[in-house]
Structures are given as C-alpha cells and as structure tokens.
C-alpha cells in the first residue's frame, strides 16, 4: 500500500534498470521505480546472497543476477549504490564490460572521488555517467528497510560535468523525480563543499566529542549526568561508523577545508571565554540562534511551500459581521526600522519595546546583525541592541537581502554610502522593481558611489570609503524614506545636509535622532543635520502602527453594529491622515487618552459604525495617509456617492501599483471605479463576492479582507503571504473582533 501511493504509475520508458548494491538506498530506489511502472524490469545485484533473496521476496526487484556482467548486458540504466569506497573497484569492473548505451549513475555522498575514479578507470569521464547523491537516509539500513517513499520531498543532487550527455542527465533526473524527490543540479566541487559543511563536519564533531568524553571517563559514569543537550548534539554519533569512515576518506579535501575554518572560529571562542569577553560570546550565540531559527524555518517552509506552491496562500473572507472589542495592533513598522538603525549606531545599549516582529523590520534587524551588531531578541517585541557607535559597523559577509522592504533599502543606502566598506543590497521580486534612483541620485550628489540595475532598480552596489559632502536637497516627491536616507548620510557628511520636502511626511527619523541626542535643525518643510554628533543609547517604546490600525478603523466604520477600541496607537500628526479622511467621510472616531511616549504621541482610538459619504480627498492629506489608501478605497466603495483621489501618483510605485491593484479588485467585486494617473475615482455601491488578486502586497490583501464585512458573498483573495511583512497576526486579530477571514483551507 505505502509505495503505491508514493509514486506515480506510468508506462515504461526504459527496459532494464540494474541496481548494484541492495542496501537501504539502492533497495529504496529499486523498489520505488519498480512500483512506478517506468521500467520493464528491475534487476538487483549484490555480493550478499541473502540480500539478493530478500530483495526478490520483498518485491524490491523483479529478479537478481549473481553476476554483474550478466546483469549489465543490455541494461538501460545502471544505478551504483555500493559504499563509497567500493565505488572505485566497481567502476573498474564496469570499465571492462561492454555497457552498450547504458546510462550510469551513482548515489555516493562525495562526488569528487567518484568522478576521479571514473576518469581513471575509463580513461575519460563517460558521457553517459551522471553522478548523483540523494540526501536521504535513515537510522535503518539493509534491503529489508527499503522504502519506496524514502526520497519523497528529499533533495537529490546531480552533479553533471561539461561532458555529460544531456539526454542521460534528463533521464536520471526523471527517475528521481518520479520517486517524489526534489532534484537539483550542482558542480561537483560545490556539492562536496556543501556536504562537508552541513553533514560531514557535524558527524565528525559528534563522533569526536563522544569519544573524547568517553576516553577520559573510562567507566562512562559521566553519561549518567548527560541531559538533553548532550543527547541532541550527539544523536548522529549513533550512525554507521564504517560508512562515515568511508565518507571522510572519500571527501578528504573539502572536509579539511571546512574543519580548518571551524577550528579557527573555535579558537576565537576559546579566546573569548579566556578573556571573559561576554560581548563576543553573546554576539556568536545570538547570531547562531537566529541562523538556526532561519534554518529551522527553511526546513519548515519546505513542507509549507510545497503545500502553498500547489495552492497559493489565499485568504477566504466570509461576508457580513460587525466589529467589536478592544485590541492592540503590532508595533509601528517605520519606527521599528529606525529603532534598529539608530540603536545599532548609538554608543551604549538601547532597549526597545513594542518592536514589530514582521518580516520587513526583521530584515533590517538581520542586516545589522550581519554587520556585526549584537542584538538580543526579539522576544515579545523586546530587543536589546548593543550599539557599536557611528563608525563601528563591519562589512556584511555577503549581499544584504532585504526581502520586501523598501524602507530598509532606502534608509540603509544612505547609511552605507558613508561607510568604509562596500555593500550590496538586494530584495524580493517586488522590491527589485521599485525605484531607487530617488535615493541614489542625491547620494551621488553628496559624493557617494552607487550602482543600480537598469532604470535605477535594485540591486544596489554601494562603494565604501567615499568622503561625503553635505548638500541642500529639494525633494521632487514627498518621501520620508528619501528624507531619512539623506539625513542618515548627513551624519557622516562634511558640512550641513538639508532636505526640503514638498509636503510634510512622517518625521520619525528626526524625532528619533533627537531622542538619541543627535541635533536636527529645521522647521516644517526642512530638516538639517551636521556631521560630528553622536548617538547616545536610549529606551524606545514603539507605539502600535496606525497603518495597521487603519484596517480596523475602516472595518468598524463600515460594519453595522461595530464598536471597537484600538489601544496605544501612534498618532504622530504626520501619520493621522487616515483619521482626518475618514472623519471627513463621516466616520465616528474618537481619540482618547492622548499622551506622549518616547517622543511620539500615542492615543487609544474608539471607532463606531457610521454611514460614510463620498468626498474629494484634500491633496494635502495624501502624504499623511499614503499607506492607508488601499483600505480607504474600501471605505469609499461602501460610502454613499463618489470619492475622488488625486495627487497620489506615489501609490503606483509601492509594493504593487496600488491604484491598479485596487481598481482591478474593486471592479471584480462590482464597484465602479476609474483609475487615473495619480489617483482613483470610486462610486460607492454594493460590494459583491468573487476572487481578487492580493498581488503579493500586504496592504492590498488586508484591504480586501476588510471589504468582506459589506460584501454580498465570500471574497477569495490570492497571493496573501506578504501580510506577514507588516502584520503577522492580522488573521488572529480579525477573528478576535468578528471579521471572518481565514487562510484558505483552515477555518
Ligand atoms: C516609510 C515611508 C513611506 C511609506 C513606507 C514607510 C518610512 O514611503 O509608504 O511604508 O518608514 O519612511 P515613501 O517615503 O516612499 O513615501
């Protein structure tokens, strides 16, 4: 039963498959392919008569041959699944046979030595030999453990050479794919390096540690005191010693390289312990912990991505409902980014509370860890940042990947333009399409050297060691990211850096710089900094993000019977355009308990249902509500009459083209809209049901979720995974207050 469900049944594409070596790997390969029906016959060869007999009895192969030569005459594919050190001898025997047109492949866990051996015995690497390595194993061994599903969802690495016949490669690829494996192609050298680091070194350490402890404690008494840590670390020392001995001999060079690097890192750790250098230890441990989590996520995501790839990550929102209760939405995204940046550059230790643990802010956090800053947490929104001072950053070990986050890339570009080292900034598909010339151009005027891809798009390559000079820059667009980028660069530039904005934009950078004791001059439209100051560590309490609260402000406004309290929301006047616009439309929002926390105004917002009417949105409010338009368009769709937005061309270059994305979705839902170059005209009406595209843009996905409250039928929203960039617990909070939206397939 098991194998039958694992593999697809198909018409035979090859005549005879010969599997040499009927252990766990060879037996599982044979069994899976036998069950697939892809081979007319599967023939086993093994030195051990008992294994041959069992293989036939257990249905692993159709039959066995005692002699390799007999089995191989007329074979179409020959799989070599013998221990790695036996491979050379086996290849020598095969070289003496007439293999006709047979494709050869193998499963050895090191590839350099197999290729070397093949070259030696055949005189040249046979074009129809495709070296391979399935990364699958189990504590079990022997033909009796053969499992047709063993390779399902496991990686199989094929290491073709320039001379490898593409038809042979694609046949071997096909065989593994039929077994459910995830096949990748790689260079021989890279394969051996990767495996040495991720598999061989850990086994060496596990065997070595257990032996070292055991040797010095002959009665093995100390193991009585061993707890989970020892058990977890040394589990793999229970693996087959002979097989591992073979692997280390076979992959000697790559293992030595990774071992030597590790030895010097271990020496550095030893020195840190010796010197009582807790800071360094904490740095290693926090980085390692994050790397481990990341690695855990990759593994978890593999299962998840497989599921999602087939289904996409969609939300399904049920129509109707009212919104009631009291919630606190997660921390402000803009302030969270800035807390990491300034905390890292400060002298001393900065404590942050309320940090947004969304993917965007975490991308900034990881970037600074990569540049050598020790950051503890996040733990329930709390962080401890061990500042390195304005000149204490170190080069990241490779390109800095910033995911979906435009704020990270634009602000970091200013900071990195002033460092002594080069940096490369990259991002996901959406970020890779966003305009970066708006920061690169003025930074170049300051003396920075920045290369971009075509049309000023990422990746950005920033050359270090350039002396910057302050400029007075009049921004062509209202952008807090551009302003902040230049102010950060200005801390390192000779003279004064002044930025003038065409309309007020969020001023978190200016406020936070002052909070860290760095003077920022300016009035309304301009802000200036002078180099030479220092940032002094401080405490930051991040208020809840008004951009996330906006979804609930609209939700409670449009749904009859709603009454909701949003706690501790940041109400910086450069961010409250959404409240002003909703109030102009007739919303019932009261700002309660207004207070100032760490230089930012904070309040509780109470919102109750109200009949909304369409308005012409005052253009002066556009930059103050720039991120809230997707959900404001939903409010407009529910309002009586027409709403007109103009002067918002910036919406076309956000995480998606938000004018088009919302116009498309609203049209699907039966709302009359007219997109313009710089805005949208919306006629209020009855929202219908249907399927809309979230376009991988968090705010589009969340806006359409809110629309369901007034929809006549369910709304299905596709491509929603990026909600996690700014609002990881969006669905949980929706369900808490009565909005019935869930990840599809879950309720
Ligand atoms: C942000 C500024 C705005 C905003 C973005 C965050 C910031 O971008 O849309 O979500 O944190 O400075 P622009 O500067 O491009 O307007």
UniProtKB/TrEMBL annotation:
Pathway: Amino-acid biosynthesis; L-tyrosine biosynthesis; (4-hydroxyphenyl)pyruvate from prephenate (NAD(+) route): step 1/1; Metabolic intermediate biosynthesis; chorismate biosynthesis; chorismate from D-erythrose 4-phosphate and phosphoenolpyruvate: step 6/7
GO BP, sorted A to Z: chorismate biosynthetic process; tyrosine biosynthetic process
Domain Prephenate/arogenate dehydrogenase: 15-303
Binding positions for phosphoenolpyruvate per the UniProt entry: 333, 406, 434, 481, 658, 699
Active site: 627
InterPro entries attached to this UniProt entry: 6-PGluconate_DH-like_C_sf, Enolpyruvate_Tfrase_dom, Enolpyruvate_Tfrase_sf, EPSP_synthase, EPSP_synthase_CS, NAD(P)-bd_dom_sf, PDH_C, PDH_N
Keyword Cytoplasm attached: yes
E.C. number(s) listed in UniProt: 2.5.1.19
Keywords: Amino-acid biosynthesis, Aromatic amino acid biosynthesis, Cytoplasm, NAD, Oxidoreductase, Transferase, Tyrosine biosynthesis
Job description of the protein: Catalyzes the transfer of the enolpyruvyl moiety of phosphoenolpyruvate (PEP) to the 5-hydroxyl of shikimate-3-phosphate (S3P) to produce enolpyruvyl shikimate-3-phosphate and inorganic phosphate.
Subunit details: Monomer.
Homology family: Belongs to the EPSP synthase family. Belongs to the prephenate/arogenate dehydrogenase family.
This protein's name: 3-phosphoshikimate 1-carboxyvinyltransferase
Biological source species: Pseudomonas abietaniphila
Organism placement in taxonomy: Bacteria, Pseudomonadati, Pseudomonadota, Gammaproteobacteria, Pseudomonadales
């Amino acid at each position: 039963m098991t194998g039958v469900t694992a593999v697809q049944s198909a018409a035979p594409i090859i005549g005879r498959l010969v599997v040499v070596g009927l252990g766990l790997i060879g037996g599982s390969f044979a069994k899976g392919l036998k069950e697939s029906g892809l081979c007319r016959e599967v023939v086993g060869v093994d030195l051990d008569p008992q294994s041959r007999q069992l293989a036939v009895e257990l249905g692993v192969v159709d039959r066995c041959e005692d002699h390799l030569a007999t089995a191989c005459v007329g074979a179409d594919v020959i799989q070599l699944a013998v221990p790695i050190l036996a491979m050379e001898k086996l290849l020598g025997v095969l070289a003496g046979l007439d293999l006709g047109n047979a494709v050869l492949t193998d499963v050895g866990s090191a590839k350099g030595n197999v290729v070397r051996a093949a070259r030696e015995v055949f005189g040249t690497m046979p074009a129809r030999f495709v070296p391979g390595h399935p990364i699958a194993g189990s504590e079990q061994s022997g033909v009796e453990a053969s499992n047709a599903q063993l390779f399902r969802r496991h990686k199989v690495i094929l290491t073709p050479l320039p001379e490898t016949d593409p038809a042979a490669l694609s046949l071997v690829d096909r065989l593994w794919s039929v077994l459910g494996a995830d096949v990748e192609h790689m260079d021989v050298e890279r394969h051996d390096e990767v495996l040495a680091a991720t598999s061989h070194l850990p086994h060496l350490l596990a065997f070595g540690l257990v032996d070292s402890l055991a040797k010095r404690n002959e009665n093995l008494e100390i193991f009585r005191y061993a707890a989970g840590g020892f058990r977890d670390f040394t589990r793999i020392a229970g693996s087959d010693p002979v097989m591992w001995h073979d692997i280390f001999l076979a992959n000697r060079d790559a293992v030595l390289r990774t071992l030597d690097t590790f030895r010097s890192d271990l020496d550095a750790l030893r020195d840190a312990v010796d010197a009582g250098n807790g800071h360094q230890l904490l740095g290693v441990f926090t980085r390692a912990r994050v790397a481990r989590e990341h690695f855990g996520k990759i593994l978890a995501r593999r299962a998840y991505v497989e599921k999602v790839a087939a289904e996409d990550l969609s939300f399904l929102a049920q129509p109707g409902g009212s919104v009631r209760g009291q919630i606190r939405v997660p921390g402000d995204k803009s302030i969270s980014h800035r807390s990491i940046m300034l905390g890292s550059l400060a002298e001393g230790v900065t404590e942050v509370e309320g940090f947004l643990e969304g993917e965007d802010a975490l991308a900034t956090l990881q970037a600074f860890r990569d540049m050598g800053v020790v950051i503890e947490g996040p733990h329930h929104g709390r962080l401890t940042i061990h500042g390195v001072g304005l000149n204490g950053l170190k080069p990241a070990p490779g390109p800095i990947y910033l995911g979906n986050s435009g704020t990270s890339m634009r602000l970091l570009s200013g900071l990195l333009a002033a460092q002594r080292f080069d940096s490369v900034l990259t991002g996901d598909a959406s970020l890779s399409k966003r305009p970066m010339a708006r920061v690169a151009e003025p930074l170049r005027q300051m003396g920075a050297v920045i290369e971009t891809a075509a049309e000023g798009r990422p990746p950005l390559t920033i050359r270090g060691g350039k002396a910057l000079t302050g400029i007075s820059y009049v921004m062509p667009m209202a952008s807090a990211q551009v302003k902040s980028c230049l102010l950060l660069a200005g801390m390192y530039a000779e003279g004064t850096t002044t930025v003038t904005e065409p309309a007020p934009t969020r001023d978190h950078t200016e406020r936070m710089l002052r909070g860290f004791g760095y003077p920022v001059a300016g009035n309304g439209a301009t802000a200036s900094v002078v180099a030479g100051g220092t940032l002094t560590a401080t405490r930051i309490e991040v208020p809840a993000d008004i951009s996330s609260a906006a979804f609930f402000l609209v939700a409670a406004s449009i749904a009859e019977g709603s009454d909701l309290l949003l706690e501790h929301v940041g109400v910086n006047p450069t961010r409250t355009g959404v409240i002003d616009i909703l109030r102009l439309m007739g919303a019932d929002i009261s700002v309660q308990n207004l207070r100032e926390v760490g230089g930012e105004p904070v309040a509780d917002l109470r919102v109750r249902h109200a009949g909304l009417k369409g308005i012409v949105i005052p253009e002066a409010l556009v930059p103050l509500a720039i991120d809230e338009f997707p959900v404001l368009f939903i409010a407009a769709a529910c309002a009586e009459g027409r709403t007109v937005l103009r002067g918002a061309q910036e919406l076309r270059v956000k995480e998606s083209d938000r004018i088009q994305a919302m116009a498309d979705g609203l049209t699907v839902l039966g709302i009359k809209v007219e997109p313009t170059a710089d805005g949208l005209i919306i006629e209020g009406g009855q929202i219908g049901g249907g399927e809309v595209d979230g376009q991988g843009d968090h705010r589009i996905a969340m806006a359409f979720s809110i629309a369901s409250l007034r929809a006549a039928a369910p709304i299905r929203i596709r491509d929603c995974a990026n909600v996690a960039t700014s609002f990881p617990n969006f669905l949980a909070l929706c369900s808490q207050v009565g909005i019935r939206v869930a990840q599809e397939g879950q309720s």
